[in-house]
């Protein structure tokens, strides 16, 4: 019997070793924020002589690049085994490590989908004034199997971005204020805690409610916190017991909004059942000879023929072809043609009729 997934749990230990215990092809999405191997040599101080905390922990120290590469190859290979063929992986880093990770990803036959730049709206200044202020980090998004179908909620990303296509440069602040987890003495509980806004965007873009999201470097638990809010299952792996304690406390305090399909399932037309325009005639929702109007207020109209094509001013073709000719631009007929509702006397989009058929098919 295959081992069961430890859903919504934090596993204590080395990620490569613990990943080996999980079932093959069982994870929908992986988000990884691994050690960056920052190679810090000297302590950094502000102009007022206070010390910049930085990352001093032993888990970020490696003897040399080979040691870091071996570490990276081990956990990425382990992640690839547990990912479903339709699964994707996000891994983030800075200029210290992301280029090495990218090469290893390709060596392991991951297929890169995007390189996303997280532009920090409130970065730490370069106090010494010897380099540019390091104001961004890079996220690589890759799929396990080139050409396989994968989740990308394009329309959800457009909606999140006020109707515009989401770009690959994301302007978001670093974790601060009430979101930043603190120890009893007021210091940061984790030196590299990532903002929930970043994980919200990643999970909303590339997973669905009920999916299993795994984070092999769980840290302060941001992935689990956002996954719980968005009704995804999560699995965290973490070596440091202190981080496990604060992550568990953080996630246990979250009381997510009750799941409703309308609230959390992304609206993605490309995943909906294909309904030919002619099906509206077959179902009696429209009739041959009926007029369709090119817009809610336009005077332009066309008559519906029995075969589902439209005819106007000598033009004859599909709802898409005729709209394209009349508008002199590429057109999706479902978005442009309106019918006259006999009950209200107002024009309604024909896409509303398509939704009636879709709902009937799903029922």
Describe the structure concisely for a colleague.
The protein has 363 residues and is an alpha/beta fold.
Can you tell me the number of structural domains?
2
The biggest beta sheet reads: 8 strands, mixed
Described by the principal axes of the CA atoms, the overall outline is: elongated
Taking all Cα atoms into account, the compactness measure Rg is 26 Å
CATH T-level fold name of the largest domain: Rossmann fold
Q: Looking at the chains present, what oligomeric state does this protein adopt?
A: single chain
CATH superfamily of the largest domain: Vaccinia Virus protein VP39
CATH architecture assignment of the largest domain = 3-Layer(aba) Sandwich
CATH class of the largest domain: Alpha Beta
For the secondary structure, the number of strands is: 14
Which strands sit side by side, in order, in the main sheet? Answer: 1-8-7-2-3-5-4-6
Euclidean distance between termini CA atoms:
35 Å
Overall mean confidence score, pLDDT: 90
Regions with pLDDT < 50 over 5+ consecutive residues? none
Structural class: alpha/beta
H-E string: EHEHEHEEHEHEHEHHHEEEEHHEEH
- Determine the number of helices (DSSP H or I, runs of at least 4 residues): 12
Helix amount: 25-40%
Range of strand content = 15-25%
